[in-house]
Amino acid sequence: MRIHSISSIAALLAALALPAQADNYRVPGNTIVNEECGSCHMVFPPQMLHADSWRAMMSDLPNHFGSDASLDEQRRIAITDFLVAHSGGRKTGVTRDAKGKPLLRISETTRFIKKHREISPAVWKRASIKSAANCSACHTRAAAGDYDDDSIRIPK
Ligand code: HEC
Ligand code: HEC
Known about the structure:
Blueprint: H1 2-17, H2 31-37, H3 51-58, H4 73-85, H5 110-115, H6 121-124, H7 135-138
Helix pairs in contact: 3-4
This protein binds heme C (2 copies).
Residues 36-37, 39-41, 44, 64-67, 69, 79, 105-107, 131-133 line the site of one heme C.
């Protein structure tokens, strides 16, 4: 009983400490997600999109940004549940387009656009970067969920 309450307090303190670190988006460990959503690109932080965006993306995996990311139904549901459970709240900014459809790209959300407004279109197109989705080209510790200013290096 005593041990139980101490670990609950520790969990509570950890949860309370997270929002204070605004640039930390550590992805909670999940083997299926790492296997299936980390094979073509890094695992994007579920916190950066609204649950509706993840649901929309996960219901059209054969047409995933020009790639076929199809999964068997069991894995598809398990991953959808994970993404929805860890999806972002107020910190994602606007996550729907003008017609009210959920945005599928983190890089199209208002929060992302605001945070990256000083980067010129030419920089995004550099061969060393190629796409705004290539987070780790500039955020050297993105794989660990660390988007702190100190770890940003924009490649030439
Ligand atoms: C077969 C390869 C492949 C797999 C598997 C895959 N993706 Fe992708 N994903 C892509 C490609 C290609 C893009 C577009 C990248 C670009 O625009 O530079 C993309 C883009 C994305 C983006 C948008 C990034 C942004 O903000 O621009 C998200 C979010 C995403 N994927 C999530 C997932 C999730 C969740 C899974 C697991 C269910 C997954 N992906 C599995 C190929 C894949
Ligand atoms: C071309 C380089 C580049 C790419 C690619 C890039 N970013 Fe950034 N990002 C930056 C820079 C530069 C800043 C800092 C802006 C500032 O501090 O004024 C930033 C800021 C951020 C911040 C805010 C950090 C804070 O301290 O509040 C987040 C979160 C972030 N980026 C996430 C992402 C994600 C997620 C991706 C991929 C989907 C991505 N970025 C792709 C360059 C990049």
